[in-house]
C-alpha cells in the first residue's frame, strides 16, 4: 500500500510529498518553506535516517515505522503557533484509536489499548512512549511563520537503550501498516486543525487534550535545564504551559521541560 491522504485532508487543500528514504521530514519541510513553499503539505517517508526530537535528540525511524511532517505557512505569532502541538497530539491519538479499532475488528482477540497524551509532546501506551511530536517554526518571506509539525510513531519497532521505556504498536498487538496510520492521521489533523482555528479554538483543544492527558492530579516533576519543579500536575493554562501545584501552595507555570511522573519524579526517569 502506498502513502495517501485521507479524503477530508485532500478536500481541505493539503498536498503530499512521499519519500522512500530521507534524513528528516521536518528538515525537508523547513528547506521548502525557505524557498517559497507555503503549504499546506504533508511530507512522509518510508525510512528516516536523521530525524530529531526535542532538544536535538535523535529520532531514527526504520522502515515500517511512521515519520511524517505537515507544513503550514500562517499569519500568527510563535506563541500562538506553539499551541498547535496540542492539536497534533489530539489528531494522533484519534488516528491511533481509529487504526486500533480496525485492528481489533480484524482480530477480535486483540485487547483494547488506551492512549494518553503526555505534556508537552508525547503519546503513551501503557506508560511507555509510543510517539513523539516536534513543532518547529521559522519566519519566512513577508514575515509569515512557517510552522512544521513532525510526528513520529513506533509502528513495528521501538528504539532500545533510551532513557525512557518505549513501545511499538506491534508490541501491543495492533497489526497495522504505517500507510494506514498516516491516512488516518491526515484525516484527524484536518479535523483538529480546523478546531484550533489559528489559535482561536485553543480553549476547546485544551479541554479535549486534558481529557486525554496522562498524570493530571498526580505527582509530577518537570526538569528544565538545571531547575526542577515538583508537585501535582494541576492543568495546562491558556498558553499551553503546564501548571504544577507545589507543596507550599504555589502554582508554577512551566513552558518547557522533561516531565517525570509518580515515583519516577524523584529519580529523574520515566
TrEMBL record:
InterPro entries: aa-tRNA-synth_II/BPL/LPL (IPR045864), Biotin_CoA_COase_ligase (IPR004408), BPL_C (IPR003142), BPL_LPL_catalytic (IPR004143), Transcriptional_repressor_C (IPR008988). The keyword Lipid biosynthesis does not apply. GO terms for molecular function: ATP binding; biotin--[biotin carboxyl-carrier protein] ligase activity. It comes from the Bacteria. SUPFAM superfamilies: C-terminal domain of transcriptional repressors (SSF50037), Class II aaRS and biotin synthetases (SSF55681). GO terms for cellular component: cytoplasm. It catalyses: biotin + L-lysyl-[protein] + ATP = N(6)-biotinyl-L-lysyl-[protein] + AMP + diphosphate + H(+). Keywords: ATP-binding, Biotin, Ligase, Nucleotide-binding. Its EC number is 6.3.4.15. The keyword Transport does not apply. Residues 1-197 form the BPL/LPL catalytic domain. NCBIfam families: birA_ligase. PANTHER family: BIOTIN PROTEIN LIGASE, BIOTIN--PROTEIN LIGASE. This is biotin--[biotin carboxyl-carrier protein] ligase.
Amino acid at each position: 500500500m502506498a502513502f495517501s491522504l485521507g479524503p477530508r485532508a485532500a478536500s481541505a487543500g493539503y498536498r503530499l510529498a512521499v519519500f522512500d528514504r530521507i534524513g528528516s521530514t521536518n528538515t525537508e519541510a523547513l528547506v521548502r518553506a525557505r524557498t517559497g513553499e507555503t503549504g499546506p503539505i504533508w511530507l512522509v517517508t518510508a525510512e528516516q535516517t536523521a530525524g530529531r526530537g526535542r532538544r536535538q535528540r535523535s529520532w531514527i525511524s526504520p522502515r515500517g515505522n511512521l515519520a511524517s511532517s505537515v507544513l503550514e505557512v500562517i499569519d500568527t505569532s510563535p506563541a500562538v503557533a506553539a499551541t498547535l502541538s496540542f492539536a497534533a497530539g489530539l489528531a494522533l491519538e484519534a488516528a491511533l484509536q481509529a487504526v486500533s479499532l480496525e485492528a481489533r475488528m480484524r482480530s477480535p482477540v486483540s485487547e483494547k489499548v488506551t492512549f494518553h497524551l503526555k505534556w508537552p509532546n508525547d503519546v503513551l501506551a501503557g506508560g511507555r512512549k509510543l510517539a513523539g511530536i516536534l513543532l518547529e517554526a521559522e519566519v519566512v518571506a513577508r514575515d509569515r511563520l512557517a510552522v512544521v509539525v513532525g510526528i513520529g510513531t513506533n509502528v513495528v519497532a521501538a528504539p532500545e537503550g533510551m532513557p525512557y521505556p518505549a513501545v511499538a504498536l506491534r508490541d501491543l498487538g495492533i497489526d497495522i501498516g504505517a500507510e494506514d496510520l498516516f491516512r488516518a492521521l491526515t484525516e484527524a489533523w484536518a479535523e483538529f486543525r480546523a478546531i484550533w482555528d489559528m489559535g482561536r479554538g485553543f480553549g476547546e483543544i485544551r479541554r479535549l487534550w486534558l481529557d486525554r492527558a496522562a498524570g493530571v492530579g498526580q505527582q509530577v516533576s518537570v526538569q528544565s535545564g538545571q531547575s526542577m519543579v515538583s508537585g501535582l500536575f494541576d492543568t495546562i493554562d491558556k498558553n499551553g504551559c503546564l501548571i504544577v501545584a507545589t507543596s507550599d501552595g504555589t502554582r508554577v507555570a512551566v513552558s518547557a521541560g522533561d516531565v517525570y511522573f509518580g515515583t519516577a519524579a524523584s529519580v529523574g526517569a520515566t
